[in-house]
């Protein structure tokens, strides 16, 4: 055979047009049994391999053979490890020019563009099926999203039901137990007893141990404290089992490694980071879900100043993430997975507040990075299913999903009250901003002490002891968070609760407001030092209680003024009515919920309150007060508590909801980026590069702490492609494992078409066997997005935000100049922010 014919045969065997493989591709496999897993010529890395575990993904050492890995994926469920090949089920991604991917490593960014093209290729394959079968497959494909969010809604509601049931029982066991059935809580045990009467079937611990010489109140206090400590301790110990050490991105290995606990806190900062496009391995896993649910039940039952509403969002997203693994459409596409997670977060808020519309707005306003109309409707469907399911389960036995549902249908706000509402809004903004600052000061001072960092259980023990000691003696702080808020929101009438918060006579109001002021101070201090301890903990209910107490105090003071000056012009709208009928302190407590403004949930929180009260009479004053509260909080502290937590934990997060003033050009970022100085893969002389030289470049990147980067492929000064570090390592490891008898210096990596001159001087067999060349082109992004080095920083920001880029190549006069990765851009923004204006 002539050289021309040999060349033509090789080109046919290695065609890039359709990815097909001819009989010539079997030449290597027929001579070496180790290569049976490869299916292209020259030797191509196996398309399927598995990591030992998600935590060991950085090692990139494949285990098993390709056939076994494929079988494991086909029979996979939520408990199995994922395949290393992220695009194993994709259709012709190599031919699309974007290249294939492996699973994203921990603390790396996803490629939104790649996942979008990947889903388009999948849809194209589905739509290519003709006939009735094709229509049925298309319908099932479209139905998958609705089906999975519906299941998520049901599962989230069931988990919320279990948490509420067990939490209420454990909380009441601190005071006593039900003699009828010891598993019942107080409300269910005494459901047929009037509020004013003593419940004969409920035994307090002082009644159980009445034969001792110790004072009965001291016995109750002792048992209250002991049970609280036990519950908080177990919750903390469970949380500590989710310890995670993020990959070190510092060049100095002597610096202490940062430790995070996946089930600690509210989980909303982690959800925000994940939905923005970063990967936090384990944060939404099955183990985190189980620990979070159990730990949350125990921590809330202990009486700590925390809530379960924020963690419900985390739990719902864990449910969504786990269920996504059952559908390859979402399980094998990180971009599509995040659409489901956005809907899941709406379900978490819905089961917490019985507010499906508020849940959708929360997902849009607070956590979601990408929220198309399709995701909005699925979020609403998920939230509706969750609320209906929880309503049917009836966890409180009253038909109400949350215990502080109230109604103000018979009351209208008076014009003079708008002044009080505005003052409450301003006060709420001040408190929200100061809470953020004080909580961060506490976290950066006390929690950075060595003995606290090494022993987080000590902080939990200290906080729960302090909480049990100071809250027991106050009748208001002794209540659970939802019960306290429910009483503060309630009206003062003969058939409704709130009797302990009502000023029936003017002589009662001074003492009542004094007790409420003490409760307010206790709640503020405890909430500041509690939020951030290593237990599952939310911030909604504690701050809602603080605002409701402040609002109730304001309402009582207005009532007191009316008692003493009924003829004042300020109360002209109340002439003919009693202070109890005209002034409703519960409505002031409702406005006081603006103290939650530190979370920056402006519109969603307002809608949540409207859904809870079932009244739209207070829409106008509430919205005006929210604007005042927002302006006040932004003037003092522009960042919400969740964004501050993200900064504190050093999560990679690109804030997109705030305006920024940028100066400079793209070249300024390159001058500061250590990764930009790393050499590229230069294929000017040959499309093949030695594997040992590539390994040296990879080691250099790892030493600099940039595992989320990649290498631009340059030929004669022009940018011809880009390959990410994760894909390059994956291909190298498989290539080396497939050639155990060859030194790495003799292995070649092919990044482009084969040189005709080299092939023409040798036979096909000698070229394929002796060169030991492995094709890496399937992992190369052949269409990287680039921008001129003179582009303004504002344009760079918009491209990273709007396009979801993982990296941005930089050119100068059409020639390659450098590359900016998302993490390098984040580091640049952080330095600019620290410099100040």
What do you see in this structure?
The structure is a single chain. The chain has 837 residues and is mainly alpha-helical. Among the domains are: 3-110 and 123-127, no CATH class; 417-648, Clc chloride channel (Orthogonal Bundle), CATH 1.10.3080.10; 666-835, Roll (CBS-domain), CATH 3.10.580.10. The strands form five sheets. Strands 5-7-8 form a three-stranded mixed beta sheet. Strand 12 (807-812) and strand 13 form a beta hairpin. Helix 14 packs across helix 15 (356-367), helix 14 packs parallel to helix 16 and helix 17 packs parallel to helix 27. It is elongated. Residues 1-81 have low confidence and may be disordered.
Layout of secondary structure:
Blueprint: H1 3-13, H2 27-31, H3 66-74, H4 93-96, H5 112-127, H6 131-172, E1 176-178, H7 186-189, E2 202-204, H8 205-208, H9 216-240, E3 243-244, E4 260-261, H10 268-275, H11 286-301, H12 309-324, H13 328-331, H14 334-353, H15 356-367, H16 373-393, H17 417-445, H18 450-454, H19 456-472, H20 481-489, H21 509-530, H22 540-564, H23 579-582, H24 585-591, H25 602-613, H26 619-636, H27 641-648, H28 666-672, E5 681-682, E6 688-690, H29 691-703, E7 710-715, E8 718-724, H30 725-738, E9 748-750, H31 756-760, H32 764-770, E10 773-775, E11 786-788, H33 793-802, E12 807-812, E13 815-821, H34 822-835
Parallel strand pairs: 5-7, 9-10, 11-12
Antiparallel strand pairs: 1-2, 3-4, 6-9, 7-8, 12-13
Helix pairs in contact: 6-11, 6-12, 6-14, 6-16, 9-11, 9-19, 10-27, 11-12, 12-14, 14-15, 14-16, 15-16, 15-25, 17-26, 17-27, 19-21, 20-22, 21-22, 22-24, 25-26
